[in-house]
Amino acid sequence: MGNVAAPFLAGFSLTVSVITLTSLAPGTARWPDLALLLFMLAAFQLIATVQFMFLARQYLAAPKDLAEWYPDWHQDYRQEQLAGILRRERGQFTSWANVARAAYSGGVLCLAAGLTVLAVPPDWEHVSVLRWAAVLVGGAATLGEAAWVVLALKRPIRPPRATPPTGR
Fold first, then answer.
1. Phi, psi dihedrals of residue 6, rounded to the nearest 5°
2. Is the pLDDT of residue 95 over 70?
3. Which residues have a Cβ under 8 Å from the Cβ of 103 and sit 6 or more positions away?
4. Positive or negative CA dihedral for 127, 128, 129, 135?
5. How far apart (Å, rounded) are the C-alpha atoms in residues 66 and 47?
6. Mean confidence (pLDDT) of the chain
7. Given pLDDT bands bounded at 50, 70 and 90, which one contains residue 7?
8. pLDDT tens for residues 43-70?
9. For the whole model, what pTM was predicted?
10. What is the distance of C-alpha 102 from the center of its chain?
11. Mean pLDDT across the stretch 108-132?
12. Backbone CA torsion sign across 13, 14, 17, 18
């Protein structure tokens, strides 16, 4: 999400924004300004996803990392301290990952909505059946994505149970 999909989709959203702003022939879309707004919202949310995942990864520590950082990790007095560190780090990672997931979902939703809005014809007469089919497909995809976002955000990412390094 934060390494490939979000940067790719953000670039696509910015590209479509520029095309909508500069190259769209007048009278080819009903609401080009709304589409532009949705594309810009998508781009900024997807860029934010990359930033939030960067912040999340700062807190991603594995037990083997702690074993390397603390040479006395196997001592009893250190075990409880390391378990606490892992819990805090995983909690921070999970918080930022959930924020990134919300931003990504919002960005994809805005992108789908923008593409759908852009496909709506400027007038209701003399419009190809395929154009209306494109609007219906886009509308269905946007509604499906909205349902997916709502369901996914109801189940936040939970951190795994933190355990200190094992073995001697």
1. -65, -45
2. yes
3. 45, 46, 48, 49, 52
4. negative
5. 31
6. 87
7. confident
8. 999 999 999 999 999 988 877 888 888 8
9. 0.81
10. 6
11. 91
12. negative
DSSP the chain: -TTTHHHHHHHHHHHHHHHHHHTPPTTS-S-HHHHHHHHHHHHHHHHHHHHHHHHHHTT---HHHHHHH-TTTTSHHHHHHHHHHHHHHHHHHHHHHHHHHHHHHHHHHHHHHHHHHHHS-SSSSS--HHHHHHHHHHHHHHHHHHHHHHHHHTS---PPPP------
SS (H, E, C) 91-133: HHHHHHHHHHHHHHHHHHHHHHHHHHHHHCCCCCCCCCHHHHH
Residue 126, sorted as left (phi over 0), alpha (psi -120 to 50) or beta, turns out to be left
The closest alpha carbon to 85, from 58, 57, 61, belongs to: 61
Examine the pLDDT at 154 and tell me if it is beyond 90.
no
